Amino acid sequence: MTLPLYALLDGNNFYVSCERIFDPRLHGRPVVVLSNNDGCAIARSDEAKALGIKMGAPWFQIRHLEREAGLVALSANFALYGDISDRIMSLAARLGDRQEVYSIDECFLDLAGLPDATAQARATREQILRWIDVPTCVGIAPTKTLAKLANHIAKSAERKPGSYPARLAQVCNLAELSERQRDWLYQRTPVGEVWGVGPRIGRQLNEAGIATVLDLIRLDPATVKARWSVVLERTVRELRGTPCIGLDDAPAPKQQIAVTRSFGQRVTGLAELKEAVTDFASRAAHKLHGQDSHTSAVLVFIRTSPFKPQAPQYSRSIIVPLRLPSSDTLQIVGAALAGLDRIYRAGFDYAKAGVMLLDLQPATQGQQELELGDDAVLHERRQARLMRALDAVNDRFGRGTLTLGSAGLCQEPGRRWTMRQERRTPRYTTCWDELLTVSA
DNA sequence: TCTGGGGTCCTAGGACCC
DNA sequence: TCTGGGGTCCTAGGACCC
């Protein structure tokens, strides 16, 4: 029987690395990528981290570093990052028999039985660097939790010389180390670096005198379950080398779909909120069509800004059940707007709204047709065709080409709810109008 | 002035049932 | 005085992930 072996491959400072592909001047400089609305930093180059910029740092608090330290800030360009991600994932997939794309910048691979996994992983990351120009790191180990940990070591060994042995930089394979060597690494690694240990549990562990990965590994799993949870117990077992989390290379359809946004500026009026909610609900329906599901309940929420506690606060959500499970954009938008009407209160500065589709189920559970008459069935089919046409046009010509009337027709500058993105780079790889131009 | 967005899993407790 | 017990389902909230 072959021993289990997993790899975790991920992009270094991924969004920043994507931006650097098309603007080499960004190399060696502190760079951050900002969230929607240019609100806070969601990716940082090593140089930006060295300036002390934390993940999630609000832009207005760090923007003085633009002048003082040459910090470059860019608005998130998700169209670009998604496309670069696809390219990396297809190259990475060749390393293992099976691949689980875990997030936009990382994937797990099943390497069980692969001879010379370390050398193969080095070759793969070299190819990704040459072909796509994005640096990556690979962690290899018998469980996914350990592969994550190995990946952390590979990154730190490269980024912070002296933290770990230099030979573990970029690719770290724990399976080829001795137990003593592994323990030495675990003893140098804070428990908070473990996949599954967040700020809350990390603090509790520290208070209990468990500071390092080695401390955690040496706890009795049964005690961990009793004192913390089955989740942490599973983590401990994984750290001890027993696989408890399998590779998920065929992710199930999502159980819920959300589209939520903070507004570019405060919004007070119902009409404007209706525009936003129509847009969010349409996008959510589009995602729903993408996984061929139906929803049976639509949640809509609006809220003021929690960061302005002195201003009047209001936050409410409501769930509007659909008569029958559906993927009809018109029906979903209608439900969201009906909910909005019921929760809206005048006199507040709204900062955020969102639409979530709940109770998703496969569209093929066509049970509802049995309960409908012939006319209704025909109507359903016409609606489905209309939805497909709507999606197709928007996929082909760009989101927002065809919208519902309630989404509003006023131009962008007049819409306070649309997000600010003042520093977005061109969508070099996905938009003909924004190709990189080279002049002699 | 200015603070993201989208998910999953687990647990505790209440409602309900027999 | 004294007020069963066990099972299931649902929901809200907490914790985690990137």
UniProtKB/TrEMBL annotation:
Signal sequence extent: none
Domain UmuC: 6-198
GO molecular function: damaged DNA binding; DNA-directed DNA polymerase activity
GO cellular component terms, A-Z: cytosol
Xref: CDD domains: PolY_Pol_V_umuC
Domain of life from the UniProt record: Bacteria
GO BP, one annotated term: DNA repair
Regions crossing the membrane: none
SUPFAM superfamilies tied to this protein: DNA/RNA polymerases
Keyword annotations: DNA damage, DNA repair, SOS mutagenesis, SOS response
InterPro entries per UniProt: DNA/RNA_pol_sf, DNA_pol_Y-fam_little_finger, DNA_polymerase-Y, DUF4113, Rev_trsase/Diguanyl_cyclase, UmuC
PANTHER family: DNA REPAIR POLYMERASE UMUC / TRANSFERASE FAMILY MEMBER (PTHR11076), PROTEIN UMUC (PTHR11076:SF34)
Family classification: Belongs to the DNA polymerase type-Y family.
Full protein name: DNA polymerase V subunit UmuC
Protein's organism: Malikia spinosa
Organism ancestry: Bacteria, Pseudomonadati, Pseudomonadota, Betaproteobacteria, Burkholderiales
